[in-house]
Design a protein that fits this description.
Length: 230
């Protein structure tokens, strides 16, 4: 699992360029690939599939952002940026991840990025990424995309997937180190959860499937930061 994702910005306004440059730099999982003043300058990056996330202004010279997106057969995940709210409907019709209305805050930027990262993480997990665990005198191949949570129980860890659960004679710390940090998080001394499997957060609990999992006080701020909530 990759620890960083490459971002391409297509934006012709210097102020908006500076804001996106700073916000991307402040995010630990993002890497700025390039900033292009118009869509045509970005063509080479798109064709070579170098970008994971595209921040795309709609009102651009030569060719609009929506017009450019319609020409692409394989596009990165797109987050539109614009000062014109009337373009929102068209943006979502083009399967954009989100629509940032200028000027936008870092918190609003973070919510949009979290949507994109969840999609990218799910895509990576679907590519048969797995770990091997020993339980019931057998060695099991566990797909990461099927894991819901891990729970420490004395000398064992209960690993719960969408299919079944396993009792693993291992420490929670050692098992957690085998999981991608971008997709799993420790939220309590006894629990590690799959971020992409969260149904909702309520108070000091997260809901995964039918399970209410407590969030420890020392983990709460980091969970909020990753999910882009206040």
């Amino acid at each position: 699992m990759r620890n960083s994702f490459k971002c391409l910005v297509i934006e012709d306004e210097p102020l908006a360029q500076d804001v996106l440059r700073k916000f991307i730099a402040d995010h630990p999982s993002l890497q700025l690939l390039a900033i292009c003043n118009n869509a045509l300058d970005a063509q080479a990056y798109i064709v070579n599939q170098q970008a994971d996330i595209l921040f795309l202004d709609i009102n651009l010279p030569v060719l609009s952002g929506t017009g450019f997106l319609k020409t692409l057969t394989q596009a990165p995940l797109v987050i539109f940026t614009t000062a014109y709210p009337e373009y929102a409907v068209e943006g979502f019709e083009l399967d954009a991840i989100d629509y940032l209305l200028k000027p936008f805050s870092f918190e609003r930027f973070l919510r949009a990025v979290n949507k994109a990262l969840e999609k990218l993480q799910q895509k990576n997990l679907r590519q048969d990424a797995a770990i091997f665990i020993r339980a019931d005198k057998k060695v099991y191949n566990i797909l990461l995309g099927e894991i819901l949570y891990l729970e420490a129980l004395d000398d064992y860890v209960k690993l719960v997937t969408t299919q079944q659960q396993y009792m693993v004679h291992e420490t929670l710390k050692n098992l957690t180190e085998q999981l991608p940090a971008t997709a799993f998080m420790r939220v309590h001394k006894s629990f590690v959860i799959a971020l992409g499997k969260i149904n909702y957060v309520e108070g000091n609990y997260v809901k995964l499937g039918t399970k209410d999992i407590p969030v420890g006080a020392s983990y709460k701020d980091e969970l909020k930061r990753l999910l882009g909530i206040s």
